Amino acid sequence: MGNIKLIHKNDNLAKKVRLFYAIFSILFLSIGFLIYLLFRDSKLLFFDWINFNVSKNIVLNINNNVNNIILYNLPDGLWILSGIMFIRIIWFNKIKLCNIYIISFSFIAIILEILQLLPYIPGTFDILDIITMISFVLFEQLIFYFKEILLL
């Protein structure tokens, strides 16, 4: 009987974690897009990709470091966090495979940022983007590690 309760408890925890990850994955992805849509220059390649003409976005003239990080680096962190959370939802019960996909996804994101140093890759290289992405990857690992405490 004790094993049945343990399995049932683990099943409920897995459902809670997956739901938590699904909600926050969508939320983080949306916030990253909203930052771009509302506060970034409409001449960015991003707007061509989504075939969206933004003529009335709020472009802020900012010189403060905190605002710069929020507007220019935070979206990358939010997007990588959202992607990792999505991967975690799909391969939740296969930890080793999940970790391989998370490492691969993170590595590709960081390599794409580094490749912006080359003239053929669109975008502007920013070391703070890499630091932000790595920070958010580590943040997700902490969330996953402490999931039992967070969702009790």
Index terms:
mainly alpha; 152 residues; 74% helix
Described by strand count, sense and barrel closure, the largest sheet is: none
Rg, Å, rounded = 18 Å
| Annotation field: number of helices | 6
Rounded mean pLDDT score? 83
What's the β-strand tally?
0
Oligomeric composition of the shown chains: single chain
Order of helices and strands: HHHHHH
Overall outline: globular
Counted up, domains total 1
Low-confidence stretches: 1-8
Strand content: under 5%
Structural class of the helices, strands and pairings? mainly alpha
Helix content: over 70%
Alpha carbon gap, first and last residue: 22 Å
Description:
The chain is globular and about 50 Å long. The chain has helices at 2-39, 45-49, 65-90, 95-114, 127-145, 147-150. The longest helix has 38 residues, at 2-39. The protein has six helices and no strands. The protein has one domain. α1 runs antiparallel to α3 (65-90) and α4 packs antiparallel against α5. By secondary structure, the chain is mostly helical.
Brief overview:
By secondary structure, the protein is mainly alpha-helical.
